[in-house]
Amino acid sequence: MNASLPMADRGAGPVVAAKPASVVPATEPKRHSALVRVTHWLTTVAFLALLLTGGEIVLSHPRFYWGETGNVNMRPWLNLHLPSSRDTVPTGYGYVLPDQNGWSRYLHFEAAWIAVATGLLYVLWGLFNGHFRRNVFPAASDLSARQLADSAMKHLRFERPGAEEAWSYNVLQRVSYLVVIFVLFPLMIWTGLAMSFGFDAAFPLAVRLLGGHQTARSLHFLVTILLVLFLFVHVVMVVVAGFRSRMRAMITGKMIAGTMISGSVDSPTE
Amino acid sequence: MSEISRRTLIASGLAVAAGASGLVVSAKLAKRYGLIPPDAGGVYGPGETLTYAAQRLVGSHSMAREFSRSQISTNPFANEVDPLGDEFNRLQAAGFVDWRLTVDGMAARPTTFSLAEIKSFPVSSQITMIGCEEGWTYIAEWTGVPLSYILDRVGALRQVRYVVYRSIQPDWWESIDMADALHPQTLIAHRMNDAELPVPFGGPLRLRVPRQLGYKSVKYINHLTLTDNLKPFGKGTGGANSDGGYAWYAGI
Q1: For residue A86, which residues of chain B lie inside 8 Å, CB to CB?
Q2: Residues of B with CB below 8 A from A88's CB?
Q3: Which residues, listed in sequence order, are joined to residue B191 by a DSSP beta bridge?
Q4: Which member of B133, B138, B251 has the closest CB to residue A69?
Q5: Does chain B have fewer CB atoms within 10 Å around its N or its C terminus?
Q6: Would residue A178 be called left, alpha or beta, if left means φ above 0 and alpha means ψ between -120 and 50 degrees?
Q7: Is-contact B212 A197, C-beta < 8 A?
Q8: HSE of B58 in the Cβ direction (CA atoms, 13 Å)?
């Protein structure tokens, strides 16, 4: 099964992991390469900064519209009914939150630059050195309804992953990572840029294709919800799979021998 | 030291050296071509500089999207402003006949124009969107004198890099670079949707900068200063908004 292919992007990993665990490698293979680990944590920091500041910005106008225009004189398709940092927004609350938009907007765009640069580095590296081909693109055989349902059931039962997943991503993981990397993140960048008046002037088609300025803003918000949902499931799955070993793997690149998971390299009998 | 780690060490060393010298060179180039915004200091400076430089490199001459007459908002929102003050009220009561626009600084012929003079100059019209940093937008038709016409008329010197513009409201001012100041869509607007520019929307005169957020389209302007240096103005970041923690460049 494709899913048993190893994570490591260097030579030693695959052979060791694919074999029965009787052979302990001379140099321990890396679960995650240095580039994956660095870009993962840079993205984490940038994403959390974007989420926090994006939330602050939304509070200055917690209403969403379709099309080009939208303001308090117009009907929103979505009103979050949150307190606002502006007294011009009719919220029904008797108070106005402090204005945080200055630093929030500065940090939002700075974090966006970090996220985009990190993402570009990761994607280019992943395409050139085969990380996506080996570890992220699912095998065609794994995409059958039965395989997907099987994997989904395992997830729903919060089953700890078996040995074959110690060194690889399972099929649902692969599909969700693909969607996040190649659909949701590009959509965030596109809808975010579409809200920029300078970008709008330079690339008007990019805004028109989306359906307008306010539609871009609404989509930016909706995709944020999907990304937060992904983050939540991602963290829950890390906990289910073994928080310490997975965190250690993403920080140091190494698995913890004893505490890894059932059927790990060092405890084949388990 | 193993072969791999030595190779890694040399490669990383070269990468760091290349990165550092690349940064120094690009900073020099950016400064030379005016790609460093006046609020480039501080922790948010790098992000702000990247945004400003990228947008100036990609779309210095691009035009803000114009809309059809049918897309004009039937219910535009006039954002609240601070109390306009006694002087404004007095001028308004007299129908703004005594409103003046003073242009000074690096100009061959610094001039004070009356409102009637401004209105007699050739006008340009545009149906564009105005958007607030809060996220809301509306579309309106704006009519007024291109700022470039005024700059021409007062004989703006070649060294001018920024136009500082002030509201009659105390301590309310902004500035733009020449890419926006000379841009054909940057207007000293005195009409909106085929009527006199209403006071809540900035009448009698509003500087309309359609490629930037609404806070750069300052209402009630009565004073322009042409300069090559923003340091002497306010805290030196180029505007009341940037002095107050908002980005100077609001094209994003």
Answers
A1: 134
A2: 77, 79-80
A3: B143, B196
A4: B138
A5: N
A6: alpha
A7: yes
A8: 14
| Chain B residues within an 8 Å CB radius of A198 | 55, 59, 62, 211-212, 251-252
Please write the tens of the pLDDT for every residue from A31-84. 899 999 999 999 999 999 999 999 999 999 999 999 999 999 999 999 999 999
B129 inside 8 A of chain A by CB:
yes
Domains, in order of start, for chain B: 64-243 (3.90.420.10)
Distance between CA atoms of residues B99 and A67, nearest Å: 38
pLDDT tops 50 at residue A20: no
State the DSSP H helix or E strand holding residue A173, giving kind and residue range, or none if neither: helix A171-179
Residue B155 has pLDDT above 60, yes or no: yes
Q: B235 pLDDT exceeds 80? A: yes
pLDDT of residue A11: 39
* Contact (CB<8Å) B247/A106: yes
Percent of chain A that is helix, strand, coil (3-state, to 5): 60, 0, 35
**Which chain A residues touch B46 with a CB distance below 8 Å?**
110, 113
pLDDT confidence of residue B27:
83
**What are the distances in angstroms from CA B160 to CA B108, B163, B216?**
11, 8, 19
Asked if A101's CB is within 8 angstroms of B211's CB, the reply is no
Q: Which residue of B has its CA nearest to A87?
A: B80
Q: What is the mean pLDDT of residues B69-88?
A: 94
Q: Does B59 touch chain A (CB under 8 A)?
A: yes
Q: Do residues B110 and B154 touch, judged by C-beta distance below 8 A?
A: yes
Measured in degrees and rounded to the nearest 5, phi and psi for residue B101 equal -120, 110
**At A146, which helix (H) or strand (E)?**
helix A145-156
Report the alpha-carbon distance of residue B89 to residue B95 in Å, rounded.
Answer: 10
Q: Does B3 touch chain A (CB under 8 A)?
A: no
**Of B73, B75, B211, which has the smallest distance from its Cβ to A197's Cβ?**
B211
Provide φ and ψ at B144, rounded to 5°.
180, -175
* pLDDT above 90: residue B4: no
What are residue B162's DSSP bridge partners? B177, B227
Q: For residue B65, give the chain A residue with the closest CA.
A: A201
Over its C-alpha atoms, chain A yields an Rg (Å, rounded) of 22
Does B66 touch chain A if contact means CB atoms closer than 8 Å?
no
Q: Is B149 on the interface with A (CB under 8 A)?
A: no
